[in-house]
Specification:
The structure is a homotetramer.
Chain A: H1 11-16, E1 19-20, E2 22-28, H2 33-43, E3 51-58, E4 62-69, H3 72-75, H4 79-82, E5 89-95, E6 113-117, E7 120-130, H5 133-142, H6 154-162, H7 168-178, E8 181-188, E9 193-197, E10 206-210, E11 214-218, H8 222-227, E12 230-234, E13 240-244, E14 247-251, E15 261-262, H9 263-269, E16 275-276, E17 279-280, H10 281-295, E18 302-305, H11 311-321, E19 329-331, H12 349-354, E20 355-357, H13 359-362, E21 366-371, H14 378-389, E22 394-399, E23 412-413, H15 421-424, H16 427-434, E24 438-441, H17 444-450, E25 464-465, H18 467-470, H19 478-483
Parallel strand pairs in A: 15-25, 18-21, 21-22, 22-24
Antiparallel strand pairs in A: 1-23, 2-5, 2-11, 3-4, 3-5, 6-7, 7-8, 8-9, 9-13, 10-11, 10-12, 13-14, 16-17, 19-20
């Protein structure tokens, strides 16, 4: 990833986690909409840390936009920036990085995207990824569209510009019927706030009520909490809502399809204080720990989370197993940029900047470490080193997700398949490569049970998109197939 | 506090916590000393977030210094800054704010302080507070010294400048024999690294070994871990160590006194992964929770920490009581600056920026909240509001320290006595003012037991400085008495 | 004008001068093209001080672009910026402000503009103004183009995108045949540098040779000097040159028209060390002073320029009249931002920041002040005040251009007609309003003579565009006429 | 010189001009004193471009100070900075670089200096240089003073701190009686504005009246003009003025000495619109040109200044000789930072960034170039190259000062003697080394005549300090002599 000057940089997380690519938030019917959007995006910052943008509309000032690299708290807290965003209607976006971009994100890739049409302007913010964007882009350029970004999402606004429909809402439908892949979209015209989810509902989108006159759309419920909005309901897969004044009009513009919500939102992406499917994400994760303790018990002295994402599952594991829960690894709350290493190099400095072992606690103990996932495995090895250096007697890894063996094409930044540890090794090989006494992943069925499917996964009609674990892609990734990606052959 | 542009600002913590005022770190005998100091200060950032400074010495470049507002990670990670700090010997300081400063800290108040003497230069970094600084300052100005800062600690370097001793180490002794109060000092000359603790040993200071040739001095052991140093021992109360080459020479320059280490370091200031008195701080805090569960049991559904400082005690409380531990409040990891509030104000926005209730988990539950301390009580009220808004059935506060009823004069930023909730209310009155179903503090004896004194507190010779709880000050605060502060009358 | 933070701001010039809107520069066939473009733009900074941009192409890195507010010297001297602009082919643009923008320029309005077409990318930089841009823009949006800027020049790149031609050069021709108005354009593809001037040749464009392999295109010759290029020739009105390798291919794509070069380039816009029509601009301006002394003599002690633009004409006036030339007004070379005025306001502070009267020289003298033009007249009044405050006996204004009575629609920022002093007053009324002893403008014939037309202006076929003086517009300003602008009625 | 990020950098001037080291300004008895000081320093910016500082006093806010690298217009125009400087009394300083500093200036070297004394605080700003500062500094350190800067001027405030006088004005006298060298000082207490000049009056200092209640002290009269103050008189050599309320009390604290004002202020340092000795500096410089034309005539076509400092003398030379004055070299008004040179290096790029030859004017002409001085001669060679490259037939240099053969020790940054071209070459050798057809300097007598001494220089009692030309130092440079500097042996 490009090093963006002035942007904090989470060295460890970058190396070895899947990263959600976006969060979206919109609000209508309030004074100072931009302030609400800024707070909402701040609560969604975990979904995209690289850049953020806000667009608002005010009858006198027209559409205004501010797009910045860096954290919401560093840009959209500045009075000079916020003063440029008047109006009672606004949408915003935080992003991690662009599918399609060769490495670097330029500021022109930062959403929301804006287009001026004959009937007025519109802005859209997209969470997800289009699997036929490359083909669409070629076609649009051929016909005279000029792309300003390297982002796939820009296709949507060009498709809208070329639609022959006379309202923007209808043009959005036209455009989205041409795209394939995953999308949860928040859009706005001069008077309307619009939300849409693709037919499978891969990415989340929720509706909230703000006082008597306002409405919000948000990727997660935690952003409703920060602005004091009441959670109304999730937008359904395949649903489009158009909000104007106090009316929320719902339509179903797409061919119905089976619901396939991203299961990794449950495991890692969503914040633990968000609500998915009527249950706290924290509780689902704790339940994963309970299932894991049942599936993969081991005799030990302490259950320690790899902070912070392993914490709820570690609590669940401890409660189910009766082995005491302990903070064996402490996370430095002032993480950020990379320090200059002295000439006499410090072993595993990258991890030390973020984590420190609670040495006096760990010494001589048999330790169960609970982490959310293993991607490349490089961080797992370094953590194992730290724990052993501190004098642990045994180290047992328990992972709160099945082996990640397939890339995601629906809005998550995944390494190439060949870089995924689970794509090339068995569980035992991984254990040896990481160098721990034992390593166990939760089963896919166990994960489904923890997520509320008491019967486990129905292989004929799985309730979630679990392609990263199963290799079963609900939408064929057509651009990738054209590039030579080989899908799993049915067994 | 002055709003320092560009400095992250922890709105909640500022309002309602005691704040350690400083952390110090020094290293000798390594290439690129400044890089080690930067890492050490980063690990000590929790002891002072407002500003930091580093001084190094290189035979060719002489003494060099860089002092900045803001986090270590934002300043001392920059190649251009670090390039100005060559040498194999260096010390550094992070600070919260200056005793003596009227509100604002100027950059000239940021330590280490440097003085050029006839026999060469020296720099010092001071953690603690001098209780006779005002009188010393008046005297020094009268005699022609020019103060550059509003910091009390600058007295030390002027006393050194006026000493008739011919070595810097002896001048430091001369100077420190004139001062009263608490100090853990790290100092350097062109060839020596020097550490000193006052006779009571109020503030911490530890010695570490770095490879074959290097030595470190640090406020806490967690900073030894980050640079890969081995913990050797604590510097004793009243001890001075002078390190040159591979020799560590120890002397006892001051009149011996009873050891009175700050007990609040155990409760809150020190990092949980540091080691104090041979035990993990985390473990001591967990033990406080155990004692608290014994002293103040209550029937409930969940034990939740107020993150992050209440976490270890909440774990201990849960383990002792058998009531499940849960993350009922989630801390936003992207905290920072203050957002602009919309015209339609958001209830308790300051707290919302930092914390969010795990609504789906809390609803209908009887919740025990474990926090480290109550200072003004304002944040406790807001947290109670949030928990009740989320639908909790009952809220019980359990506090991991006794009531804070007296100000600290030894290097901790405390509100005036009249602002301390416990100085004006009984426990029951506090419960009603905060508005919770029950409120209990650990007893002073219980705290001593958790800190390893199985017999509790010996009222004749307490092992710790607990003046903030007991009003018994080991060193009379002479400047404050002159200003009219009334000490506790012996009962 | 919007206050752009960090951008120097010439308070005086802004208030009361016509402002050229752009300068363009391009280079091909050299290593580090961006460094040449930066130098060229620096030499053209007087043509546009608000913002600048550079695009380069490198076979490995593709097209790269950097666009910034502020001076070239503040942005395009930074190693980090220049490192992002590799390649041997590049173009650049400096701008003042956008026709069409409501006040503020956004960074997206800064040129060069870039478009990705089916046959590859292209970038263009435009000096001039299109008089049918509003109509074109409406049409393009209707057909599905998405505009990213408020700049008229963006029409060109959308017209190119929709052309059915298969080479970029041909698409440029297609596009430019649809536009009306004034343009001198520098464009680039992956392999070609392209220059075009409209059929009237209103704005300048010159060709230079750089060593054995390189070529430049530039608004003025002064930018050839800074990069060490040899001046080859002016691009002709209506000519297009396509430079690739060592070949310069010239075509005439437009209907031939009479040459009408902007006469204000001679008076004020171009730098005095540039060459126009084979003669130094300085020399033309000196000659204006000579003509002015013949047309409007007056008895006085000193001839003083209003610095710096009145200097050459003042020298000419002095030489012709025999009255000594003197620097009666001194310009502060550190001009820039606006200072905060004290509560006790300082008379004419804006002018004082830029100019100071040479008090000891002026006292008791009859002074002739030579200025280049009078637009609103507000600055002329302030300068008169300063001169009289310093004790001058008489003040005579001599203006090196005819009365500016009509707005320019070809790329110059002019106030509305009603704000032009000469649109509403006679010469005598202006003299009284400004408050000087005499005021004389050069005649249009005198100006033509100074510019090399010994017979003066041919009213049937004037050699220059002098619409700002004469109201005779060579191209009908169709957008403006649609908005209600009233052209001069033929007498 | 250190490259100060963010500070404009005048590449040419740096290389080959003597540089004044400071300008001072103070004001009392006005609202918003800081705004006046900022304007005054802006007008004095030519005396010191590297850094500036302002101190003000307000009864409620006490003393406040802001010190910054860079131009006044970039720092002291910011509302956030100026808001920190309340009060009706203030002083300021602009500086070039520190005598005594090894290369780099730290912010702690930026004046005014401030000291807190038993009777209250005081701030001082010093223009000039102390010739016994090194010895004083050693003595003060020996006695326990701690220096915060590398600036010689800091000695004054330490001497004040150690004085036994009971008023600050008396302490200033005490301190200044101990120092040797040149000083024009502006100082302030809580209620008084104080100005002092050394007994020889080497550096300028003037008094101005501001409205009914205010007074100013300034290095030059041009700074009185910008704030609208009336010039009252020069402070006399050896005079001290103490201004409080509406009273200006004058005393003569030093042993009387012959007046020896720096003649280089006339030649180059002072602004042309300032008044020295009752006459415009511009007029003195024009008169130098007149004298030079008499002393060193030559047959030629044009007289051109080297801009901007050669301009007045060139005008005088033209008027005396009858040879037309012309702007043969144009200065780029957007000078500043250094550009990145392309791989294919551009001949004399440094000069090109600042100057361009008016090629069409110069071609085939015999040109007289008038410059203010020759220091190293390197720039003269480059300018000669540019003029010849442009096709000049002959080049004749005429220099408006005698050969600069000796360093200045009184506040001017001069190269070591060995780097001064005139210290090692005769006039003819210099002509050949520079490579021009003729080179002539004005004589010392001619310079005195132009400066108003009709009889020329009185070798027994010269009216000016002309040590840089004559080697006759009015004050023995004792620190330099101790370092081995050899003064001129009397002939």
């Amino acid at each position: 990833m490009r090093h963006v000057p002035g942007t904090p940089f989470d060295a460890l997380q970058d190396g070895d986690k899947l990263k959600e690519e976006c969060g979206v938030f919109g609000v209508i019917g309030v004074a100072d909409a931009a302030n609400f959007v800024a707070l909402g995006l701040h609560a969604l910052q975990h979904r995209g840390q690289e850049a953020g943008g806000i667009v608002t509309y005010d009858p006198e000032q027209g559409f205004n936009s501010a797009r910045r690299f860096g954290y919401v708290r560093d840009n959209f807290t500045r009075a000079d920036v916020m003063a440029t965003l008047p109006g009672s209607l606004g949408i915003g976006h935080v992003r991690y990085s662009t599918a399609g971009s060769k490495g670097a994100t330029a500021i022109r890739d930062v959403q929301p995207f804006f287009g001026e049409f004959a009937m007025g302007g519109a802005a859209i913010a997209h969470n997800g990824n289009l699997t036929n964007a490359a083909a669409l882009r070629r076609e649009l350029i051929e016909r005279g569209s000029i792309f300003q970004s390297s982002s796939d999402s820009e296709c949507i606004i060009h498709l809208m510009a070329r639609s022959i429909q006379t309202s923007i809402a209808e043009r959005i439908k036209d455009a989205l019927r041409r795209v394939e892949g995953a999308f949860s979209i928040v859009a706005m015209t001069r008077t309307k706030l619009i939300g849409v989810r693709d037919a499978h509902g891969v990415r989340p989108l929720v509706l909230g009520r703000l006082g008597d006159s306002g409405w919000c759309l948000s990727s997660e419920t935690c952003a409703l909490d920060i602005v004091g909005a009441e959670f109304v309901r999730e937008i359904d897969p395949g649903e489009m809502v158009v909000i104007e004044g106090n009316k929320v009009i719902s339509t179903r513009p797409f061919t119905p399809a089976q619901s396939r919500f991203c299961i990794f939102e449950q495991v890692y992406f969503s914040r633990p204080d968000s609500i998915l499917g009527g249950r706290s994400v924290y509780e689902t994760r704790r339940q994963i720990g309970v299932e894991l303790a049942k599936e993969a018990p081991v005799d030990a002295d302490l259950v320690c989370p790899v902070p912070d994402s392993g914490t709820p599952a570690a609590i669940g594991y401890s409660q189910q197993s009766g082995i005491p829960y302990a903070m064996g690894i402490i996370r430095n709350q002032y993480m950020g940029r990379t320090f200059i290493e002295p000439t006499e190099q410090i072993r595993n400095m990258g991890v030390r900047l973020k984590l420190n072992v609670n040495r006096a606690l760990i010494q001589g103990k048999r330790v169960i470490l609970v982490d959310d996932s293993v991607v490349r495995g490089t961080t797992s090895r370094k953590i194992k080193d730290m724990i052993l250096d501190a004098g642990a007697a045994e180290v047992h890894f328990r992972i709160a997700s099945p082996p990640t063996a397939w890339p995601c094409f629906y809005g998550v930044d995944t390494p190439e398949r060949s870089k995924l540890l689970a794509a090339t090794m068995t569980e035992d090989e991984m254990r040896d490569w990481i160098g721990v006494d034992s390593l166990k992943f939760i089963s896919l069925d166990g994960l489904y049970r923890a997520a509320g499917e008491s019967a486990g996964r129905d292989p004929k009609a799985p309730r979630f998109c679990d392609a990263c674990f199963s290799g079963e892609y609900p939408v064929a990734p057509s651009d990738k197939l054209a590039e030579g990606f080989e899908m799993k052959v049915a067994e």
